[in-house]
Amino acid sequence: MDLKPLLEKKGGKIVLVVLDGLGGLPVREDGKTELELADTPNLDALARRSACGLHVPVDYGITPGSGPGHLALFGYDPKEYQIGRGILEALGLGMEVRETDVALRGNFATVRYEGDKPVVVDRRAGRLPTEENRRIVAKIAEKVKEVDGVKVLIKSGKEHRVAVVLRFPEPLPPGSDEINDTDPQAVGVPPLKAEGKNPNARRVAEVINKLSKAVAEVIKDEPKGNYLLFRGAAQKPQIEPFSVRYGLRAAAIAVYPMYKGLAKLVGMEEVNPEGETIADEIETLKRVWNDYDFFFLHVKKTDSYGEDGNAEGKIKVLEEFDRELPKILELEPAVLIITGDHSTPSVLRGHSWHPVPVLLHSPFVLGQTSRAFTERECLKGELGIFPGYKLMQLALANALRLKKFGA
Fold first, then answer.
1. Structural domain of residue 24, as residue ranges?
2. Is 163 left (phi over 0), alpha (psi -120 to 50) or beta?
3. d(CA 191, CA 121)
4. Is the domain of 267 the same as that of 221?
5. What confidence score (pLDDT) does residue 126 get?
6. In the chain, at which end, N or C, are there fewer CB atoms within 10 A of the end residue's CB?
7. Residues 59-84: what's their mean pLDDT?
8. 240, 229, 236: which is closest to 189 by C-alpha?
């Protein structure tokens, strides 16, 4: 539904906190999830005074990537707006992306060679330290500047992540990014060959395959990051700006480049914290509080520990956020939403299809339907189970930013 005719020019401030990969599954014999095991008195008390529920990021049974999960939270139906991860990583790192470009997300990986064939040992190279990443990227950038007349731009991200922009001599037709990942999403197997689904994409895939070989030759002697796997090939998309769609001036507070890229993609303004802790992000929120109507605050490590199968690590991040939560409440936002972009159960070591807990706090909710902020208690909440991309409508309504519909 187009909300623009209903938008009010005035209303309260909205804070959206995304605890990446929030949802979980039982990790012990007693059947408790990470949220149920975490000591989160502030979250639990807030849940009792809030509207709770579970949101479905894409569709029932569909496991979302981080891009679709966040687009849904920003109010864009991810089935309508399908955006590759490469563009998000590149934008988040401040790279320019043109109509001539295909952007790729790269993972440094550890491979062993059986003859001349690489076999993946670790898809993330042990979550390579960012300093090592930068050193290896500088080595690649010096040696690999062009492949078949296509300019190669590469930039370091966090840990094992990099962004690559392939700049072709001329604008590319739509669909030129319809290419599979070279990351096999498994260990003990070779990297995949890039293959295009149409003639234009096949041309791009050929460049990616040659790039993989060229990069491998440069870094094959590295102890950990000795191969580069590619994911999420993407061209520059067209998407309605958040400010136009919802009439809100929005700030994005995030540490990891991909999430900055997601926010930039929809037109949010990037506000960088001085440090990388949850406390640093909340201090940034306080600093810019008077300058914006909407605030997106992203916490990454809940997802990282889930992907590593580290339930205790995920629990500690949840408890760290809980300790910092009162600082957000002191700002008295009209609406505070706490949720995740998807579930990342540590028992699965990856994203999953499970609905995600959501808490919406405002003066205009029933409350008293959930006793704590957990998967099972949110299931009892007044919001029920609903599509994630509808969350923005609920936020606007509770911030008194929507007019009545019809006579």
1. 4-83+238-398
2. beta
3. 10
4. no
5. 87
6. C
7. 91
8. 229
